[in-house]
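Give me structure tokens for this 430-residue protein.
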Amino acid sequence: GMQQQEVAIRPNVRIVMHPSSYDLDDIVVTAFGGVQRKSTISGAVSQLKGENLNNLPIQSFDQGMAGKMAGVQITQSSGLLADGVSIRIRGTNSISLSSQPLVVIDGIAVTEETNLNVFNSGDGTRFNPMATINPNDIESMEVLKDAAAAALFGSRAANGVLLITAKRGKQGKATVSYNGYVGVSTATRLPKLLKGQDFIDISNEKAANRWGAGTVIAAWDEKRSETDWLDKVYRNGLTQNHSVSVSGGTEKLSVYASADWNDQKGIVIGNEMQRGSVRLNADAQVNNWLKIGIAANYSHTTNDGVLSDGYLAGATVSAYNAPPNVPEYINGEYNLTANGLLGAGNNLYSYEGITTYLNSFYHPTATIDLQRNRNTSERLLGNIFGELTPVKGLKITSKFGIDHMNNFEDQYSHPAINGVRKCIQWTGTG
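Here you go.
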């Protein structure tokens, strides 16, 4: 690799890259807590330090990997909070099955689910289980990218392996650390949609081409109502994260403990996420041949999702699609038809028995306000281990781990809007 450089921006900048030979001396985790120097590894391994995730406005650590590891592609399904993240190591490896890599945290393989929501076959709102893990607790991440990973983890490593090492206590005086940030997010590069008069002119021009000159299928209502639907759906989102950790230890005992609170409001109205988590990692050197330890993390996450992309009734898609010359409300009530669609105003949705528009129009803000898409997730992730050193150079380690997750999925649609009625689902893994 090359050495990292910081250069001030000025005219006629000349930058010379210098090789980074010391990278070969870096220590990387290879499997089940084992470590090696890069110079002794024959397989393909990429590493990302946990410090690179600090102060990033992300909900899950996998989002923070984007653009930071060679051969690893990170794709987020949408801009909604806690939405699914696709991880591809050296491309897609399966045509019909999952191409997600195996995720191993502190030597324990965790759930391979990429979406905890099961309603509508997981095709509606999505919830990424990796959003339940605090990125501030991560010491490092390693990606095993080639077939050599299969020798360590078997067929589960066919799509690669993501190894995550959590922070642990270090020998020395106890230290208390605080990491926090507050930020604002906003939607960028939104499409420029037609204004009311432009929509009327183009709609009537299409009608004239179909039915003859003078045909009118779009017109202003009595109040000349005009609605900017994107402005009704998008907002500036506020993000804040506060994390406190304590670390320290002696030759015999080391402890790392942390507490984290994350509160985010998304760029789409109604999209919010709160996560609280606590972690305790402890290691005890009982004698010169026995070491024991524990790693435990509990998190409670609440996510208010919004039906968005992939559906005409989704808040964002319906905002792109809705006519701009109809009002949001009529007499204080949502402008809805009897079958729960957006009221047409003086527009004609059909002419001489023929549909005038390709799709039905859904009410964007009613979709948000009259629906509920809430996930409440509790996750206990931990392990205990014992490490024997019978002779110098030989270590025997045994671990027992648990990844227990309860996810309560509550989805409801008001009868006044077009779509599903009410559904409550519960899923659990352990």
